[in-house]
Fold this protein.
Amino acid sequence: MTYMIQRFDIDVAEVPIFEAWLEMSLLTGTIPLPAAKFDKFNAPHFQGPRTPQVDEVKEVNAAALRIANGFSSDQHECDQYGVDFETMLFEQAEANMLKESLGMTTTKTVEATPSTAQASEDATTAAESASIQGTGLNGAQIEALLSIINKVTTGEIEISTANALIAAAFPLMTTAEITAITSKLEVGESEEDDEAEAEPAKPAAKKPAKKSKRLTTPV
């Protein structure tokens, strides 16, 4: 969006103003150049400042890669930031001369290749992640751990199974830490066992005794 606004301002305002100024300067002799070569001199280059990105380290590394691979030039990259390349070189030369006159070093304070910077960033990210996991459990991890403990207390799983589940879900936890959690749990009985205890055994039904038939003889 910023680039579109800059492009609109250049095409609508800046270029017409420059053309009118150049034509008047050539015709009045303010600029001692032939007015017949107006089209040759009418080649201005306008470049607005570029909006900085969120991660400037990646942006600078990308620019260095483009220049190293021949996809861009120093002048083009400076134009992207609204900086004149020649002016920047003169400023750097003056700064180096001033540093040398004061006995200061002119070497760069930070010099890192894109691969080194990326490796450093990956290492930092991994260290931060490990630090976060090592300092404590987040909400989802605590909920999962409580779920495993609840299954042990209700008798759905055994302690050995719970230890294996916790070790797989929380690889940073040591065996001693896991054992310290599960060793104090009271293993409950499963629902099937509860139902079996709740229902008393029914006595077996007695079969009615068969009546024996007695033969009576008439007197």
Observations:
- The CA atoms of residues 26 and 37 lie 9 Å apart.
- The chain has a mean pLDDT of 76.
- The chain has three domains: 1-46, 50-135, 137-189.
- The radius of gyration is 43 Å.
